[in-house]
Write a structure and sequence with these properties.
about 200 residues, alpha+beta, Nucleoside Triphosphate Pyrophosphohydrolase, 2 domains
């Protein structure tokens, strides 16, 4: 079994264990689900080459286990796309981040874009949804749904902040080093195709 297949299988086992611990009523079932949870985190630690405590801290969300939600803004200027440079890694991606509770998806992306680029934007609509579990190049512990919104800048300018050091527009043939857990060349190519299709209708 390939590493990605192992990871996805262990993710599923962990999700079943977490659901059982949350909803199971029988005390003996709870013991079995707890054992299954410990087994799943041990297997994930083995795949991720880390310790069990780290895995358990990463997956310690309360409630029913569901994929995490990541929102990104797709802002273009002709044939160029706006990217931001991550402070920690120095690599580039579409502006965005985790969706916060109590805020709509479009409000989330407006907030993230403002924080990372200094731009106030309007949201034209949802352009694409990417599922990280469909990627084989960079296996990730958690499954993410990446919601990509087409956005139009209204006002503002870049101000350096704790998350990003700069923003700039790039064409597909002159992209900087990308933070590929966040944004890939293939995703950007697909987004340009979807944008062209949406605006041609």
């Amino acid at each position: 079994m390939r590493k990605l297949e192992k990871l996805q299988s262990y993710q599923r086992i962990l999700a079943l264990a977490q659901a059982g611990l949350m909803y199971g009523k029988d005390v003996f079932d709870q013991e079995r689900y707890q054992e299954l949870y410990e087994l799943a985190t041990m297997l994930l630690a083995e795949v991720g080459k880390t310790d069990v405590a780290t895995i358990q801290e990463l997956v310690a969300d309360s409630g029913y286990p569901t994929p995490k939600v990541d929102v990104r803004g797709f802002i273009t200027e002709g044939d160029k796309v706006l990217l931001v440079q991550d402070t920690a890694s120095g690599r580039w991606s579409l502006p965005g981040g985790y969706a916060e509770i109590g805020v709509s998806p479009s409000q989330n992306v407006q907030k993230e874009v403002l924080e990372e680029t200094g731009l106030t934007v309007t949201v034209a609509g949802l352009l694409a949804v990417f599922d990280t579990n469909l990627r084989s190049d960079i296996p990730q512990l958690s499954q993410y749904y990446k919601l990509i919104f087409a956005c139009e800048p209204v006002s503002g300018r870049f101000i350096e902040n704790s998350e990003t050091t700069q923003s700039a527009y790039f064409s597909l043939d002159k992209l900087p080093p990308l933070s590929e857990k966040r944004t890939t060349v293939q995703q950007l190519q697909k987004l340009f195709q979807l944008r062209e299709k949406a605006f041609s209708q």
